[in-house]
Amino acid sequence: MAGPSPHKPRRKVKQAGGNGPSSLPVIMEREALVRVPSFPLAAFLWPARSSVSQWELLPLILMVVGLFRWAAGLWGYSGFKKPPIFGDYEAQRHWMEITTHLPISQWYFHDLEWWGLDYPPLTAYHSWICGKIGSLIDPAWFALYDSRGSHDPTLKIFMRATVLVSEYLIYIPAAVIFVRRFSRLSGVPAWTSSVALVAILMQPATILVDHVHFQYNTVMLGFVLASMSSMLAGRNFWVSFFFVMALGFKQMALYYAFSVFAYLLGVCVFPYINIPRFIGIALATAVSFAILLLPIVAGTLSEASRGITAHPGDSHPPLPLFADLAKHLNTDAFYYPVVEQLVQMIHRVFPFARGLFEDKVANFWCAANVVIKLRKYPAELLQRGALVATLAAIIPPNLILFLRPNKHLLPFAFATTAWGFFLFSYQVHEKSVLLPLMPMTLLLAGRQGLGKDTRAWVGFANILGCWTMYPLLQRVDLRVPYTVLTLLWAYLLGLPPTSLNAYFQDGSSIWSQWATAFIHGFFYLTMAFWHVLDMFVVAPKDKPDLWVVANVGVGAVGFSLCYLWCLGSLVIESEILPTSWTGKKTKAKTQ
Amino acid sequence: MYVDSKSTDFEVHRNWLAITHSLPLWDWYYEKTSEWTLDYPPFFAYFEWIMSQVAKLADPAMIRVHNLEYDSWQTVYFQRWTVIVTELVLVYALHMFVDSAHGVSKRAAQAAAVSILLSPGLLIIDHIHFQYNGVMYGILIASLVLAKKRSSLLASGLVFAALLCMKHIYLYLAPAYFVYLLRVYCLSPKSIFRIQFFNCVKLGGGIVGIFAAAFGPFALKNQIPQIFSRLFPFSRGLCHAYWAPNVWAMYSFMDRLLIGLAPRIGLPIKADALNSVTRGLVGDTSFAVLPDITPRMCFVLTLLFQAIPLVKLFMKPTWEGFIGGVTLCGYASFLFGWHVHEKAILLVIIPFSLIALKDRRYLGAFRPLAVAGHVSLFPLIFTPAEFPIKTIYTIFWLVLFLMAFDRLAPAPTRQRLFLFDRFSTIYITISIPLIFYCSLVHGIIFGKSLEFLPLMFTSSYSAIGVVGSWLGFMVVYFTE
Questions:
Q1: What digits encode the pLDDT tens for the residues A541-587?
Q2: What whole-number distance in Å separates Cα of residue B253 and Cα of residue B250?
Q3: How far apart are CA B172 and CA A203, in angstroms?
Q4: Among B170, B5, B163, B116, which Cα is nearest to B373's?
Q5: Lowest-pLDDT choice from A556-560, B392-396, B444-448
Q6: Are A262 and A413 in contact (CB under 8 A)?
Q7: Which biological process annotations from GO are given for this protein (chain B) (predicted)?
Q8: DSSP secondary structure letters along A485-530
Q9: Do B2 and A74 form a contact (C-beta atoms < 8 A)?
């Protein structure tokens, strides 16, 4: 076996070298999408275009993106040496601490002032696994109470490694499979889809938030991606399973919930009504939720039988939500601890009690707050207003997806819905911008995904997204990784500020090109100008947040444009309107 | 780009910046506030002086001699930037190299140039460990490329002389230069007995001028002995702190084996060597069973093995032969030199890269060298944070370029040595479990004890690769 194998490739190469020049034009013609490398990333992968198989390219791609992630992770994390409560890093570490040390029924009740657990159960299980592994290496990292605010450098490496490993177990396989399926569906050649894969995996916002600032968003995004790629494969049960897991990891996945629902419902109704499929999907969802909750329910029951209660001392405090429930239920029954547990979990996971927006977020409400002071309105009204606005923003895309459950529309619909949520919903965080960015970036793998128009818009959204997170990153001194990663991505995809080649192509109308270039140019210039201001001009004393507010305002307008572009593309791609209309629609959009 | 890692060399260079900036020229080689005294030749000191002028703007505290172990973030950023900026010299040299190739070999030259630029060796040593090799290898490559054309031979020699005045390690390559320039530039191409006197004068004068520029100011004050005592510390031991993978590493490994075996075969063991605490780990090595090695022996062996290929070069002076000769000189000095540092492996890898793509036989010899050389650099970096970077990057580089080279290298005109190909395949396969063991498994099984074991494995393994590749390349070189 070992004998002949080293010779084989050589002979092949010799042949390929022999007729290489003659076969080159043929290859060039087959590559309908890209004839010459039109942006640097394509140029880097150019040599792999014709001969290299995917299985040789993929490990290399994964190694490179892994290196960038790890190298970015050498920078500081949020809350590094920032007492009293540190930051997201401490929150995640603290959850590993409490999940490994406390009985499962106390997880959602323990010392809520110090980063109490406020993510759904899958996060808690994930923390438990990571905490167990970490304790094997050094128990002091997760010692109860004593380890708070620990800045052990080895612990940092461990935590970074957990993010990386989680991502390589969930997000990256999901992304690879999704890109492969999606590009096959859209008839995109393998090499082009590899380029798109690198672009997707090098997304600066994701790396900055997860590997630098520190969080586990990619786990949730990975489950959503897995769910989307199951949609492409037509495995509807897995769709619901993965999506429930995503929800169970981070409630933020609700941004996509409407699209998932609309698509699944659409699949059941069109082309003909399929009742068994509908029931099957409903059952799969229910089973998935059961699996998700089983450990915590079973744990609570067994601990209750052993006399361990959720809150030592006080026997039955009132329920935080649905307080009336206690009147109808027997508080001493065996199931009561479970009810209490679940209510507490919902209470922790959905913080209705907080304000309309937390920090300065580039969404509609925060931007509107600059003009009209929203805080003077009652919270009730604001909540209702947010609900109405969000519904108004998300119903159109989901209606389209429901009526036309086409697989190639998925990223458009997901992105539009997530943008709608991001712009109009209640209690949005800056980092939530990752949610709309993820499906929007997936467009790169689709039909004409690396063409100039899509590339320009996807790139614009991503760079704007990073830019709106700059104040967040700046607070923890992460300017350098921000600059490097964002500019690197812009360079790879040939976007401003490094190049203008994403604009002006032949083929589409000159008007829309100029309009896009003009709008984007305006935003890029504003961003650059803002950076100069932020660096060299101190904000006036009476308005210390002036630059941040300006960032928010510009960001909100830019994101609204992204929303409109996604919606417009969805409408055109779905061919739901008569052709004469869509013509008008494009013009209306670009003007 | 990596901010967190600071090796001792980082402090070394900061200290040199401080010395060259704040002291008068004639105190440079006498200053010893820090234990890291200036031990590079004068051009490098001038180079540090130029950088210190910029450093003054970045953070004035950085360039005070007494500010030991100083590392404000400005200092870190500044020093890292200087490495990146000075590496542009390397980029330019590689550009020259690509330009000098024509026709079919153009693509091969491009691949080789990119492989050098992205070399994990340079990444590990310059960007993580911290040194300025990028700029110096840039100058070396520029000099090698200049030697390709008859018209620029003189420039090539002079550039190399300047390089010697920057870092004296390149003295190892000097014999090849000497022979090649002598044969091609100073002697007539038709007959070796007709000397081109004018060329000799130009070259000799130029070299003397450069050395005068470097050492002249110091010679005025009679400081040359002091400089030389700094530059050539013969008091150090045979092997460096970590064993460079050369013949002596194999020699010590055998010695260790013999310690166990000696009582059974009845060989005498020197008790003092056995009891010495450092035993192979640090500096001074003494052998328990095998005879000790003296610097003189090293020197003779090095010269001998350098001389063999050079005879061939003298007889048949082609540019490729010259690069091969430079490579073989690097090999010989690396394998047999006294107190060789493992970083010196780049001295072999980088010139070799330039001709590795000539055909498959060259590539066959290059492959084990690439694997062994880079694996042997691993112990330089030991913090867990950098472990993934060095390993994954090196594996990435090896996979990418060995694959690309495989495609690009043309078939040889002569028969290959198939036995050698087997050797290299098996060899490369072994590297995977070895890296895995040394970096992970060993720590889990033995904890802190027996720390030298992974080091010894790594260096013996790499030594086999380097020696194997050397023998292979010798064969290729002489059958050419």
A1: 777 778 888 888 899 999 999 999 999 999 888 877 665 554 444 44
A2: 5
A3: 46
A4: B116
A5: B444-448
A6: yes
A7: protein N-linked glycosylation
A8: HHHHHHHHTT-TTT--TTS--SSS-HHHHHHHHHHHHHHHHHHHHH
A9: yes
DSSP structure class, residue B184: I
The minimum CA-CA distance between B159 and chain A, rounded to whole Å, is 33
Q: How far is B400 from chain A (nearest CA, A)?
A: 7
Euclidean distance between CA atoms B285 and B295, whole angstroms: 12
What CA–CA distance (Å, rounded) separates A357 from A428? Answer: 6
B385 vs chain A: nearest CA distance in angstroms? 6
Q: Is there a contact between B3 and A75 if contact means CB atoms under 8 Å apart? A: yes
CA distances from A480 to A76, A483, A487, A488, A581 (A): 11, 5, 11, 12, 47
Alpha helices in B337-382 (DSSP H): 346-356, 360-377
Question: Chain B residue closest to A477 (CA)?
Answer: B73
Give me A526's structure tokens.
């504003």
Note whether A122 and A292 are within 8 A (CB): yes
CB of B436 within 8 Å of a chain A CB? The answer is no
Residue with the two structure tokens 């024509």: B102
Does ipTM surpass 0.90 in this model?
A: no
Helix pair B360-377, B418-436: axis angle to 10 deg: 20
Q: A155-165 as b/e, with b when 16 or more CB fall inside 10 Å?
A: bbbbbbbbbbe
Residue A31, Cα to own-chain centre: how many angstroms? 31
- Alpha-carbon dihedral angle through residues B212, B213, B214, B220, given to the nearest 10 degrees: 60
Q: Which of B409, B348, B403 minimizes the C-alpha distance to B376?
A: B348
Residues of chain A with Cβ-Cβ distance to B410 below 8 Å are: 17
pLDDT digits (tens, 9 = 90+) for A448-505: 777 778 888 899 999 999 999 888 888 877 888 888 889 888 888 888 777 777 776 6
Instruction: In whole angstroms, give the CA distance from residue A243 to residue A492.
Output: 32
Q: Which of A390, A452, A416 is nearest to A571 (CA)?
A: A416
Within an 8 Å CB–CB cutoff, is residue B331 touching chain A? no
Contacting residues for B225 by C-beta, under 8 A, at least 6 apart: none
Q: In the numeric block, which tokens belong to residue A436?
A: 């709309």
Give the helix ranges, DSSP H, for B39-171: 42-58, 73-86, 88-100, 105-117, 120-122, 133-146, 153-164
